[in-house]
Q: What sequence folds into this?
């Protein structure tokens, strides 16, 4: 059977979700491990902001060249490479040295970059146009699923095995998934082009094409800020709740899991709405305003707020700041030229990850200078509200292969 056979329609979605969830788990485990790791390494818990920045700096590099790599070697092979790199990064973290943590961040970042271009390459071949946003949103539930696993499983693994044992255990799971996906490689890598060139001079061409297409450029630049806000939420929520609000690590991890669950629900709901109800660009603008308002709300709550109050804000924050990606990626796939979905996705994510590189270190700097997590969430919340208003007021731009309209 071919990948486009209806009987095989669910398989690519299941595989891409599983790979995305495990790679996201590798990237999001560090913020949950940060308090425990700080005790054994002597580093301040705030090092996680730098760690996340290095992860996504490396992801910027690998996602920019992912289009050519996916076309040449196939999306499944590149997914396997991603899993092995991220698993190796977790093993490096278990060394519990500054050099090991730097190596860990680089390896995880290099592995994180190609995953979404690879999955988009698969899904654009297997998804009917009228289900594009929902299918891409379903695939992107792998990100909050990975975060949910990080929030729920990692504290328990740390309790039983220590944080280094937890890192080794998670790394082994990623290597196992890489081995499992070998069985389906002949089916989904059948369109690979071994003659596709891999010259350094080609690296910037997809980015130039995105920046030259107004609709893609708007989405990519706004995703810079969306990505920054998303990673600030997932990277600093646990630290904020434990250090500034005095909650236990398990309670704070559970609230992070609430945000991730809301992100899963949000991605499904927003994907359906973008296909059936509202123009994707307008929906993304609304989500920008909501995540901005949630960040401001988190900054303004007092120490007497009950746990349920934090969980409610986290749910709204997660549904918006974690839930936007599927609509964004489906819109990029719609607007990309035929045969260039992987390259356009990689170039757009280069801008997204750029925000992630800048966002967490800037947030950490604001907190360090002011000794106030609320100030960080307040500043980023105001900025995201402005970005959301821009998307809503400017309207769809011309350019791309298909208009951005509900089916």
A:
């Amino acid at each position: 059977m071919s990948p486009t056979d209806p009987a095989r329609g669910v398989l690519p979605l299941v595989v891409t979700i599983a790979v995305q969830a495990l790679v996201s788990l590798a990237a999001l485990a560090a913020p949950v491990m940060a308090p425990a790791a700080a005790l054994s390494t002597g580093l301040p818990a705030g090092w996680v902001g730098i760690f996340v920045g290095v992860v996504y700096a490396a992801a910027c590099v690998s996602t920019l060249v992912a289009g050519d790599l996916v076309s040449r070697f196939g999306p499944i092979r590149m997914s396997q490479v991603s899993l092995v790199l991220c698993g190796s990064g977790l093993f490096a973290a278990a060394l519990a040295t500054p050099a090991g943590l730097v190596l860990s961040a680089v390896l995880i970042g290099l592995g994180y970059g190609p995953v979404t271009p690879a999955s988009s390459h698969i899904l654009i071949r297997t998804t009917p146009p009228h289900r594009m946003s929902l299918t891409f949103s379903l695939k992107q539930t792998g990100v909050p699923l990975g975060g949910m696993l990080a929030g729920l499983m990692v504290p328990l693994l740390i309790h039983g095995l220590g944080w280094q044992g937890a890192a080794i255990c998670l790394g082994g799971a990623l290597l196992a998934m890489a081995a499992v996906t070998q069985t389906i490689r002949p089916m989904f890598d059948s369109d690979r082009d071994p003659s596709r060139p891999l010259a350094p001079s080609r690296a910037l061409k997809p980015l130039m094409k995105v920046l030259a297409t107004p609709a893609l450029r708007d989405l990519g630049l706004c995703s810079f800020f969306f990505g920054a806000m998303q990673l600030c939420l997932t990277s600093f929520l646990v630290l904020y709740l434990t250090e500034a609000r005095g909650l236990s690590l398990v309670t704070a991890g559970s609230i992070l899991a609430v945000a991730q669950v809301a992100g899963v629900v949000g991605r499904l709901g927003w994907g359906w709405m973008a296909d059936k109800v509202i123009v994707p660009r307008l929906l993304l603008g609304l989500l920008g305003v909501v995540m901005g308002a949630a960040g401001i709300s988190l900054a303004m709550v007092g120490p007497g707020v009950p746990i349920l109050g934090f969980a409610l804000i986290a749910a709204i924050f997660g549904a918006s700041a974690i839930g936007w990606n599927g609509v964004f990626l489906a819109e990029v796939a719609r607007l990309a030229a035929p045969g260039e979905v992987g390259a356009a996705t990689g170039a757009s994510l280069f801008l997204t990850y750029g925000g992630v590189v800048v966002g967490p270190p800037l947030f950490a700097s604001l907190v360090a200078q002011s000794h106030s997590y609320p100030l960080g969430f307040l500043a980023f919340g105001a900025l995201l509200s402005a970005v959301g208003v821009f998307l809503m007021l400017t309207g769809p731009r011309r350019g791309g292969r298909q208009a951005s309209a509900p089916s």
